[in-house]
Amino acid sequence: MKGLKHRYCIVGVGHTNYGRNPGLSQMGHNVVAIRAALEDAGLTTKDVDGVLTKTPTSTFPHLWAPQVAEALRIVPKVCATIDQAGASNIALIQFAISAIELGQAEVVVCSYGDNPATGDRASYAAPRGDAAVAGLFGAPMAYAMAARRHMAMYGTTQDQLGNVAVAHRYHASMNPGAQFREPISLEDYHNSRWLAEPFHLLDCCPVSDSGAAWVVTTAERAASLKQKPVYIEGIGQGHPAWDFHRREDITLSGAKVSGEVAFKQAGLGPEDIDFCELYDCFTIVPLITLEDYGFVKKGEGGSFYEDQRTYIGGELPINTSGGLLSETGMPGPQHIIEAVRQLRGAYQGTERQVEGAEVGLVSQQGGIMTTHSTMILTNQPA
Amino acid sequence: MSERQSAPSQPSAHKTPSELKAELMPAVTALDAPFWDGLREGELRLQQCAACRSYQYPPETFCYECGSMDLAWKAASGRGTVYSFITVHQRFHAAFTEEMPYNVSIVQLEEGPRIVSNVLGIPPHDVQVDMAVQASPRAITPEQSALYFEPATTEGDR
């Protein structure tokens, strides 16, 4: 295997306004984000020969990627939708690299866009099949089951969950584009209403209108484009796959297998990572992800968020734009965009910049920790 | 499997909570009818594979463990432990209006499968991970019962 080292880059990123955005359709979020990402890269729709998408959560349309291509007046050589929920966002990049490697395309755009805040949000509270009569609805309750088991097994505390919400909100408070920017304290966290114990409202990401896009091409092509290239060093996947209550251990995610593959490919380990953008639909998820990647021992994720260790300027900055919990409830692309911006030094001269950041890690996952993908990025040339 | 939609999530306002709960019951199929027949008769029944002896839920036309199609319905012990649980405070559905806050548990059955249910008979905050529970089906309609659990009362029950 040749490996990925320094051969492929993310050269453009773009997104729509996060929060409530009634002026933009589901398709509009994809189109506006893709056009913004291409402009960011110094490219146009005429340069694009691959269009890849993650399906919108709210409506799950059939043949979505071809519709996105049509809306941009692109007739692509490569066009596909990948269904791994949140983990798709990195899987799309993997598919883009595969297509470029096989000579099928050179410039591939990946996108996600949805408008559940102002459109249809029924899928976010859908009854879960046979469990509906037991009163199990939507994702928060299922993730709360994982949190409760983690607390019972490892002694993880309510304060430790709260620290995640507080830390990510702190970073969002520096981000003018974030949906929730008002800083919160641990007391605010405890005072937020219970949704399903052990989850307060502030353990859960919001439902947001959002669109985002990211452009993948070769390092050769990237050299002549507008932005400082961000190299893709490692990609991994790992999928617990089974429905959450049936798998062997609901406190384990796909991060273990996915991370091992990505780290090996990159020739790096957790000690080499300067900052992380971790999928954070609920507070328990970054804790489990840190454990399964090997940043801490299993069960000790809660301690990692203590003493502001994850703040910008701390030991390992995590979710430097606010993540799902505070920047936008969009399922994951904000993490890719933020990692790219940090590695470009886009915030240089402000408190938002992770000083000296050379290597960043992005985790994406979907379902109830059903799927997982990992990506390691760097700004360092070969 | 459990992702299938079992009922509309926007019920009409004039129905009683019990009528609404009946609407949340999944449609009975030829495949799972023995499960629902068992609950109506007060008994938890599971498919058992004749080849590898494993028990399974939800029902299927094949054994999840070994692929055999030689499956038979057997009465289960009804004994289990709470694998994890939550206490729900947000009203996601009008069927639960009179029960707030309510318990939802993942129950680890003695026979192997795990199933999502409710532990009744004690306040939701008294439920604990690993506590012993016993199946206790209750009627939702005259024709259909749902699976619930209660704390296992004595060691003799276990």
Question: Could you characterize the architecture of this molecule?
Answer:
The complex is a heterodimer of chains A (382) and B (158). With 382 residues, chain A is an alpha/beta fold. Chain A has helices spanning 26-41, 64-71, 88-101, 138-154, 158-172, 186-191, 219-222, 255-266, 284-293, 301-304, 323-326, 333-344; strands spanning 8-15, 50-54, 78-82, 108-114, 194-197, 199-200, 210-218, 230-237, 275-277, 359-366, 371-378. Chain A has twelve helices and eleven strands. In chain A, helix 8 (255-266) packs across helix 9. The longest helix of chain A has 17 residues, at 138-154. By secondary structure, chain B is mostly beta strands. Chain B has one domain (17-157). Chain B has helices at residues 17-24, 33-40, and strands at 45-49, 55-56, 71-75, 79-88, 102-109, 114-117, 132-135, 138-139, 145-146, 149-151. In chain B, a hairpin with a 5-residue loop joins strand 8 (138-139) and strand 9. The radius of gyration of chain B is 16 Å and the shape is globular. Chain B starts with 16 loop residues before the first helix and ends in a 7-residue tail after the last strand. Chains A and B meet through helix 4 and strand 5 of A and strand 4, strand 5 and strand 6 of B. Strand 5 (194-197) of chain A pairs antiparallel with strand 4 (79-88) of chain B, so a sheet runs across the interface.
Which residues of chain B form runs of ≥5 with pLDDT under 50? 1-9
| Overall pLDDT metric of chain B | 91
Neighbour order of strands in the largest sheet of chain A: 3-2-4-7-1-8-11-10-9
Question: What do we call the CATH topology of chain A?
Answer: Peroxisomal Thiolase, Chain A, domain 1
Biggest sheet features of chain B: 5 strands, antiparallel
Category from helices, strands and their pairing of chain A = alpha/beta
Structural class of chain B: mainly beta
Q: What best-fitting shape of chain B do the alpha-carbon axes yield? A: globular
Span of the ends, CA to CA of chain A: 18 Å
Strand content of chain A: 15-25%
**Helical residue percent band of chain A:** 25-40%
Count of helix runs of chain A? 12
What is the chain-wise order of helices and strands of chain B? Answer: HHEEEEEEEEEE
Q: What is the number of E strands of chain B?
A: 10
